[in-house]
Design a protein that fits this description.
Layout lengths: L1 H30 L15 H8 L1 H34 L3 H16 L2 H18 L8 H26 L2 H9 L4 H30 L2 H6 L7 H8 L6 H35 L1
Helix pairs in contact: 1-11, 2-11, 3-6, 3-8, 3-10, 4-6, 6-8, 7-8, 8-11
Amino acid sequence: MKTKTSLTSKLYLGLIFFFLYAPIAVMTAFSFNSSSSTYSLDGFSTYWWIRMFKDSAAMDALKNTVILGVATTVCSVLLGTLAAVGLFYSKNKPYKKLMSTATNIPLMNPEIVTGISMMLLFVFAGTLIHKSEVLGFGTLLIAHVTFCLPYVILNVIPKLRQFNMNIYEAALDLGCKPFKGFIKVVLPEIVSGIITGAVMSFTLSLDDFIISYFTNGPSFQTLPIYIFSLTKKRVKPDMFALSTLMFAVILILLIFMNVAQSRADRREAKRI
């Protein structure tokens, strides 16, 4: 009975992975197609990849996406780490509960609601300062930090809870300044949570389309929006190459995040 249940579970899991990754495998295969056909493979070629890298619009969109992702990661890590430390040290329980609930709102809120509401907020702010073209890199950065910030906070707070604060207090008793004590004692213990939050922030920023679609301007276009603009025309394998590139980068980042997390867990287990 157990063998039959185990076999059924493996079959079910295999079907889930098949339906999830089969379309990506097909897309990757067609990105190396020697012709422009999107329904038959006529041979192996790297023509569409070379054409993609020679496309100035695609490369500009890629550059914008990386710049936005790095800026979002830096801002989210700095603000998220400070917010997590502040929440952890706060003695006001109603305040902590309220802020924890507010932190979860961007995670639970539908992206289209977040995107439209932020667009309306930015446009309203633009009318107040009498600026017509308010949407651009700045609004994209604010929007991306808004939905990436909770991931940093939720990854750092558990590490703070695992840390023995008596060690930090002992450092202060021995004459260490509070900031230096935090850098020397607390930060090394929570760095794995910070790295996980940073990788998640960069991945989410790189992959986001819906919120970016509503908060970007004509002067700054990200790669997901550029790919979406290509779908309005006849789909060509260079779009498959772009999508495959994005999938590969995100996959590498997720593998790195999982490896870093597993190593941190092993170190924590050994220390305990």
